[in-house]
Protein backbone atom coordinates (compact mmCIF):
# COMPACT_ATOMS: atom_id res chain seq x y z
CA UNK A 1 0.00 0.00 0.00
CA UNK A 2 1.06 3.57 -0.71
CA UNK A 3 -0.06 6.80 0.93
CA UNK A 4 -0.11 10.20 -0.75
CA UNK A 5 -0.80 13.35 1.26
CA UNK A 6 -2.36 16.02 -0.93
CA UNK A 7 -4.14 19.33 -0.38
CA UNK A 8 -6.43 20.81 -3.01
CA UNK A 9 -8.82 23.13 -1.24
CA UNK A 10 -11.57 21.74 0.95
CA UNK A 11 -10.76 18.19 2.05
CA UNK A 12 -14.40 17.13 1.62
CA UNK A 13 -13.99 17.37 -2.16
CA UNK A 14 -10.91 15.18 -2.45
CA UNK A 15 -12.37 12.74 0.06
CA UNK A 16 -15.51 12.33 -2.07
CA UNK A 17 -13.49 11.56 -5.21
CA UNK A 18 -11.03 9.16 -3.61
CA UNK A 19 -13.75 7.34 -1.64
CA UNK A 20 -15.04 6.21 -5.04
CA UNK A 21 -11.70 5.15 -6.50
CA UNK A 22 -11.02 1.44 -6.95
CA UNK A 23 -7.92 0.37 -5.05
CA UNK A 24 -8.20 3.09 -2.42
CA UNK A 25 -8.20 1.52 1.03
CA UNK A 26 -8.71 4.68 3.07
CA UNK A 27 -9.09 8.42 2.82
CA UNK A 28 -8.46 10.46 5.94
CA UNK A 29 -9.22 14.17 6.07
CA UNK A 30 -6.85 16.21 8.17
CA UNK A 31 -4.54 19.15 8.60
CA UNK A 32 -0.86 19.37 7.72
CA UNK A 33 1.85 21.87 6.92
CA UNK A 34 1.29 24.22 9.83
CA UNK A 35 2.81 25.19 13.14
CA UNK A 36 -0.03 24.68 15.63
CA UNK A 37 0.57 21.45 17.59
CA UNK A 38 -3.18 20.90 18.08
CA UNK A 39 -5.09 22.26 15.07
CA UNK A 40 -8.87 22.17 14.91
CA UNK A 41 -11.23 22.88 12.06
CA UNK A 42 -12.07 26.25 13.61
CA UNK A 43 -8.41 27.26 14.04
CA UNK A 44 -7.38 26.05 10.58
CA UNK A 45 -10.33 27.78 8.89
CA UNK A 46 -9.33 30.97 10.68
CA UNK A 47 -6.16 30.91 8.56
CA UNK A 48 -3.67 31.49 11.36
CA UNK A 49 -2.23 28.01 11.91
CA UNK A 50 -0.46 27.58 8.57
CA UNK A 51 -2.10 24.20 8.03
CA UNK A 52 -3.71 23.08 4.80
CA UNK A 53 -6.87 21.02 4.66
CA UNK A 54 -5.50 17.79 3.22
CA UNK A 55 -6.24 14.12 2.71
CA UNK A 56 -4.06 11.09 3.28
CA UNK A 57 -5.02 8.65 0.52
CA UNK A 58 -3.87 5.07 1.03
CA UNK A 59 -4.15 2.93 -2.08
CA UNK A 60 -2.96 -0.29 -3.68
CA UNK A 61 -0.74 0.66 -6.65
CA UNK A 62 -1.37 -2.79 -8.14
CA UNK A 63 -5.03 -1.77 -8.54
CA UNK A 64 -4.77 1.97 -9.19
CA UNK A 65 -1.46 3.54 -10.20
CA UNK A 66 -0.18 6.57 -8.31
CA UNK A 67 -0.31 8.46 -11.59
CA UNK A 68 -4.10 8.07 -11.66
CA UNK A 69 -4.40 9.28 -8.05
CA UNK A 70 -2.38 12.37 -9.01
CA UNK A 71 -4.29 12.86 -12.27
CA UNK A 72 -7.52 12.95 -10.26
CA UNK A 73 -5.95 15.46 -7.89
CA UNK A 74 -4.98 17.84 -10.69
CA UNK A 75 -8.28 17.39 -12.53
CA UNK A 76 -10.72 17.87 -9.66
CA UNK A 77 -9.31 21.10 -8.23
CA UNK A 78 -7.79 24.20 -9.79
CA UNK A 79 -4.02 24.03 -9.29
CA UNK A 80 -3.60 27.47 -10.88
CA UNK A 81 -5.25 29.58 -8.17
CA UNK A 82 -3.06 30.63 -5.28
CA UNK A 83 -4.57 29.93 -1.86
CA UNK A 84 -8.05 29.61 -3.27
CA UNK A 85 -10.54 27.04 -4.49
CA UNK A 86 -13.74 28.67 -5.64
CA UNK A 87 -15.31 30.47 -2.70
CA UNK A 88 -12.79 29.02 -0.23
CA UNK A 89 -9.96 31.55 0.21
CA UNK A 90 -6.85 31.36 2.39
CA UNK A 91 -3.62 29.41 2.75
CA UNK A 92 -5.58 26.56 4.32
CA UNK A 93 -7.06 25.95 0.84
CA UNK A 94 -3.72 25.94 -1.01
CA UNK A 95 -2.82 23.40 -3.63
CA UNK A 96 0.03 21.40 -2.09
CA UNK A 97 1.75 18.05 -2.26
CA UNK A 98 3.55 16.50 0.69
CA UNK A 99 5.96 13.88 -0.68
CA UNK A 100 6.80 11.29 1.96
CA UNK A 101 10.01 10.17 0.26
CA UNK A 102 12.29 10.89 -2.71
CA UNK A 103 10.36 8.57 -5.03
CA UNK A 104 7.12 10.44 -4.34
CA UNK A 105 8.87 13.75 -4.94
CA UNK A 106 9.89 12.52 -8.41
CA UNK A 107 6.39 11.18 -9.11
CA UNK A 108 4.73 14.40 -7.93
CA UNK A 109 7.11 16.55 -10.02
CA UNK A 110 6.25 14.49 -13.12
CA UNK A 111 2.55 15.09 -12.48
CA UNK A 112 3.10 18.85 -12.15
CA UNK A 113 5.02 18.90 -15.46
CA UNK A 114 2.29 16.86 -17.15
CA UNK A 115 -0.51 19.16 -16.02
CA UNK A 116 1.50 22.35 -16.61
CA UNK A 117 1.12 21.56 -20.31
CA UNK A 118 -2.66 21.18 -19.99
CA UNK A 119 -3.57 24.32 -18.03
CA UNK A 120 -3.40 27.74 -19.70
CA UNK A 121 -2.22 29.37 -16.43
CA UNK A 122 0.84 28.39 -14.39
CA UNK A 123 0.47 25.63 -11.81
CA UNK A 124 0.89 27.06 -8.29
CA UNK A 125 0.83 23.73 -6.47
CA UNK A 126 3.61 23.78 -3.89
CA UNK A 127 5.74 20.96 -2.57
CA UNK A 128 6.03 20.98 1.19
CA UNK A 129 8.13 18.89 3.49
CA UNK A 130 6.28 16.06 5.15
CA UNK A 131 4.81 17.37 8.36
CA UNK A 132 2.71 16.00 11.15
CA UNK A 133 -0.70 14.98 9.84
CA UNK A 134 -3.52 15.71 12.25
CA UNK A 135 -6.72 13.77 11.67
CA UNK A 136 -9.68 16.13 11.35
CA UNK A 137 -12.67 15.86 13.62
CA UNK A 138 -15.08 12.99 12.95
CA UNK A 139 -17.70 15.21 11.29
CA UNK A 140 -15.22 15.82 8.43
CA UNK A 141 -14.53 12.16 7.67
CA UNK A 142 -16.52 10.74 4.75
CA UNK A 143 -18.50 13.99 4.72
CA UNK A 144 -20.05 13.74 1.27
CA UNK A 145 -21.30 10.19 1.73
CA UNK A 146 -22.97 11.16 5.00
CA UNK A 147 -24.37 14.54 3.92
CA UNK A 148 -24.90 14.40 0.12
CA UNK A 149 -27.84 16.80 0.20
CA UNK A 150 -26.00 19.61 2.04
CA UNK A 151 -25.74 22.77 -0.06
CA UNK A 152 -21.92 22.66 -0.24
CA UNK A 153 -22.06 19.08 -1.45
CA UNK A 154 -24.58 19.87 -4.18
CA UNK A 155 -22.99 23.09 -5.39
CA UNK A 156 -19.26 22.37 -4.97
CA UNK A 157 -18.65 18.63 -4.67
CA UNK A 158 -21.21 17.28 -7.18
CA UNK A 159 -19.54 19.07 -10.13
CA UNK A 160 -16.13 17.74 -9.05
CA UNK A 161 -17.53 14.21 -8.90
CA UNK A 162 -19.10 14.69 -12.34
CA UNK A 163 -15.70 15.74 -13.68
CA UNK A 164 -14.04 12.71 -12.08
CA UNK A 165 -16.68 10.42 -13.58
CA UNK A 166 -16.19 12.01 -17.01
CA UNK A 167 -12.43 11.42 -17.09
CA UNK A 168 -11.90 8.49 -14.72
CA UNK A 169 -15.04 6.35 -14.97
CA UNK A 170 -13.02 3.15 -15.33
CA UNK A 171 -11.36 3.82 -11.97
CA UNK A 172 -14.50 4.76 -10.05
CA UNK A 173 -17.24 2.91 -8.22
CA UNK A 174 -19.85 4.03 -5.75
CA UNK A 175 -18.94 2.93 -2.23
CA UNK A 176 -21.35 0.46 -0.68
CA UNK A 177 -20.21 1.58 2.75
CA UNK A 178 -17.83 4.29 3.88
CA UNK A 179 -14.17 3.32 3.64
CA UNK A 180 -12.83 5.63 6.34
Account of the 3D structure:
- Belongs to the MsrA Met sulfoxide reductase family.
- This is Peptide methionine sulfoxide reductase MsrA.
- It holds the Pfam family PMSR.
- Has an important function as a repair enzyme for proteins that have been inactivated by oxidation. Catalyzes the reversible oxidation-reduction of methionine sulfoxide in proteins to methionine.
- Its EC number is 1.8.4.11.
- The protein is of the alpha+beta class and 180 residues long.
- It has a single domain, classed as Peptide methionine sulphoxide reductase MsrA (Peptide Methionine Sulfoxide Reductase, Chain A, 2-Layer Sandwich).
- Helices cover 34% and strands 19% of the residues.
- The protein contains 6 helices and 8 strands.
- It has helices at 11-19, 41-45, 66-75, 102-116, 143-146, 151-168, and strands at residues 2-8, 24-32, 52-59, 84-85, 88-89, 95-97, 126-127, 134-135.
- The strands form 2 sheets. Strands 7-6-1-3-2-8 form a 6-stranded mixed sheet. The chain has a two-stranded antiparallel ribbon with strand order 4-5.
- The chain is globular.
- The mean pLDDT is 93.
Amino acid sequence: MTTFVVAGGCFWCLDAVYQRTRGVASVISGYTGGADPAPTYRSVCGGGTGHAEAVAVTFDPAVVPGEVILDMFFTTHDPTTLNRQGYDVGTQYRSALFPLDAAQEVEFAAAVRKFAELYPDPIVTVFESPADFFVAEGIHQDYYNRFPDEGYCRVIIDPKLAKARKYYATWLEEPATPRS
